[in-house]
Amino acid sequence: MLRIAVCNDEKLQIEILEKLLAGYNSVGTLSARVTSFESGELLLEDVKLKGGYDIYILDMMMSAGSGIETAKELRAYNDQGKIIFLTSSMENVFDAFSVRPSRYILKPLNSARLLRELTALDDEIKREKPLCISVKTSHGECRMLYSEILYIDIENRAPRYHLADGRLILGASRRCKFREMISELLEKHNFILSSVGVAVNPENVRSFRRDVIKLKNGEELICSRTMVRDFRSALDIYTKNGA
């Protein structure tokens, strides 16, 4: 079931959206749980407490802060939910590029158009989920693609996910060893330990010479001397298997 957040400072617009979404649910064309907010501030407070949503339907222009500013805050929390902007004019769309919106829909709302866009995003999310990891952070759940992760290290008992686009995601602190924190990545997704506190995604390794791991973004990591042989062996197996 999709988790959809609606944010609009006009109660009538919220009611229209809720009615449309309830209608899609009732006839089985879309399965969604909808939560509505009358301001970006209320939405952000909810995300901080409970984690993010799969889809955000944001009014681009609101009296108390724009939907674009709300979207920027969501992205600052590393929230990767799909964003649909509702707008009465396309003149501000360039201001929204930095938050990577998925869709723009012109008002007044057209039921068929909204359903078409939501169905397309639902399909997109379903395709992505097997390729994604959900990480608990201080701002709630953060979803990222496995392929985006360059490497993971640890700081103050919290895993840090270094991503290809330069983002650094700080996971929630856990009272267990680093290997236990990332056991699923090591066992099911080919990540390789390069030291007791660093695990590398072999998909993003450009080269490995002596003890230097060069990543596809140009960054270099030093492999622990005691782990060089195991790292090289695991990397060779990954490469030979064409993973």
Characterization of the model:
Helices cover 33% and strands 30% of the residues. It is α/β, with parallel strands linked by helices. It has two domains: 2-130, Response regulator (Rossmann fold, 3-Layer(aba) Sandwich); 138-240, LytTr DNA-binding domain (OB fold (Dihydrolipoamide Acetyltransferase, E2P), Beta Barrel), CATH 2.40.50. The strands form four sheets. Strands 2-1-3-4-5 form a five-stranded parallel sheet, sandwiched between helices. The protein has a five-stranded antiparallel sheet with strand order 10-9-8-12-11. Strands 13-14-15 form a three-stranded antiparallel sheet, with no helix packed on it. It starts with a strand and ends with a helix.
CATH class of the largest domain: Alpha Beta
Low-confidence stretches: none
* SSE order, one letter for each helix or strand: EHEHEHEEHEEEEEHHEEEEEH
The CATH architecture term of the largest domain is: 3-Layer(aba) Sandwich
Give the percentage of residues in beta strands.
25-35%
Lateral arrangement of strands in the main beta sheet: 2-1-3-4-5
Oligomer: single chain
